[in-house]
Amino acid sequence: MDTINYTPGPMPQYTPGRDLIGYGEKPINVEWPNGARIAVSFILNYEEGGEHNILNGDDRSEAYIWEKGGATTEVLNGRHLMSESEFEYGSRAGAWRLIRLFKEFGWPMTLYAVGTAFQKNPAFAKACVRDGHEIGNHGLRWLQWAHLSDEEQIEMIKQAILMLEEASGEAPVGAYIGRANIRTPELVKIAHEQLGKPLLWESDVYNDDIPFWRDCEHEKDLPNKEKKGLLMIPYNYVNNDYKFVASNPGPGFPGAFVYEDYLKNEFDQLYREGGRMMNIPLHTRIIGKPGRTNALRNFMKYISEKEGVWVCNRRDIAKHFQEKFPYIPGKLAVKKTD
């Protein structure tokens, strides 16, 4: 029988610990603005131009999250016509189709924007800010960060912040790195502190339908009154449009009608519960295809006809939550008492 070596207790490189309890049986009432029953956050992942490509000094073409995705499509030490073209569809056509769609409804979204990708399409970057969309940090490059050191991650996060600000005219106040490791959320906060840039939220978690505070390891020796904590706004994969192109066999959306139907069902359940948030993750090269955009539009029209729906960006969610539930060390959320 094989022996498994196990060292009890968290090791520094594996902090923070886990929380399997959360808010428990009776979650807090978030009290969304104007009595809204639900906060809906549309998130557009903008990665085109930041993915693996030999022209960027990488050793391979990107094989992840495109129409013919999967390891079998990877080209080592060379370029891949199909993969590159699919990503270009997102930046050339899909991005602008989505800009027009959200302008039709007058709704904001949050961009998870890769620094080098925005740098290569500054017209789109500036159009997003012009139309009232929020710019979030999706990293310097859209690459796997799992084995990077803390120092490497901090430097890449800082470069991405400055690059996004230069390209769009707006510095990000939140981040979702995505292809990250267990240390990344805290390192995002450290990078913002080193640059003197405010950080309102971080979304590299998938464990709730309600925001929550977490303590920061690098603040553990500070007096409680000096600790700032880190507000986590959970993200999800369940509504993610990447399921249209998930590797076969996989849990993908077989068609736009299934995607639309699932979004409506999730919305209905969260709306019924009240006080929850709904994430709708999007990609320009995926949902930006015409038939899928139309399904998204059908869903948007569906929720536009409901009362008590707050369509917002993550910056506004963070500001609301911080006002109602200011950080208290060791607590997920405690309502402010006037």
TrEMBL record:
GO terms for biological process: carbohydrate metabolic process. Signal peptide: none annotated. Residues 81-312 form the NodB homology domain. This is NodB homology domain-containing protein. Gene3D superfamilies: Glycoside hydrolase/deacetylase. Pfam families: Polysacc_deac_1. One of its GO terms (molecular function) is hydrolase activity, acting on carbon-nitrogen (but not peptide) bonds. The lineage of its organism: Eukaryota, Fungi, Dikarya, Ascomycota, Saccharomycotina.
